[in-house]
Design a protein that fits this description.
Layout lengths: L2 H108 L5 H20 L2 E3 L12 E7 L8 E7 L2 E3 L2 E4 L1 E6 L1
Parallel strand pairs: 2-6
Antiparallel strand pairs: 1-4, 3-6, 4-5
Helix pairs in contact: 1-2
């Protein structure tokens, strides 16, 4: 065998060895590809499960936030309502006191012999009390000289008199009051014609 033949035979052997190595590498990569495909599928499944769990958590969070917001609004409304109801009840209990102050002022002005200082003191207390009530949202219902309105007035008597207009309030027995535009007490009045 010549040296060239030996070289060819050695080259062929080396080529065979290289081809075998390449085949092993290809088979190894094919095996790695299969393993990677399986691992990729497992990871995709885990990701999908995690995304679903995240959606569930987000949904729970949003519902909880909405429930809390509704709770906050409801409690704020209840607190406001309780305050208004408490204030309304207190004001209703004070109205007879106001009536008595007004009667005392009328009587004090009619009786000149009464101590003028006492009458002025009662009037100052009355004005102070009315100022506080006005600050709280209490208003007198205007009745005298106004047309009768059943939403604000309670007619206790009715007279026919040509000098007054039709359905005109000509006398007020007891003043009516509004609290935040709601009737606390209707005005008791006499209506003409």
């Amino acid at each position: 065998m010549s040296q060239q033949d030996m070289q060819k035979a050695g080259n062929t052997e080396m080529q065979d060895v290289e081809e075998q190595q390449v085949e092993k590498d290809v088979n190894h990569f094919d095996s790695d590809d299969e393993n990677l495909d399986v691992e990729l599928q497992v990871l995709k499944k885990a990701l999908k499960e995690q995304e679903e769990q995240n959606k569930e958590y987000l949904d729970r969070l949003q519902r909880t936030m909405a429930e809390f917001d509704n709770f906050r609004k409801r409690t704020t409304k209840e607190k406001t309502s309780m305050y208004e109801m408490g204030a309304k009840e207190t004001i209703e209990k004070l109205l007879p006191v106001i009536d008595n102050f007004e009667r005392a002022l009328v009587n004090a002005k009619e009786q000149e012999e009464l101590n003028i200082g006492f009458a002025q003191g009662v009037e100052m207390i009355y004005k102070q009390l009315m100022s506080i009530l006005e600050d709280m949202g209490v208003k007198k219902i205007e009745a005298l000289g106004h047309p009768f309105d059943p939403n604000y007035h309670n007619a206790v008597t009715h007279i026919e008199d040509e000098q007054y207009g039709e359905n005109e309030v000509i006398e007020e027995f007891q003043k009516g009051y509004l609290y935040q535009d709601q009737v606390l007490r209707y005005s008791m009045v006499t209506v003409a014609n």
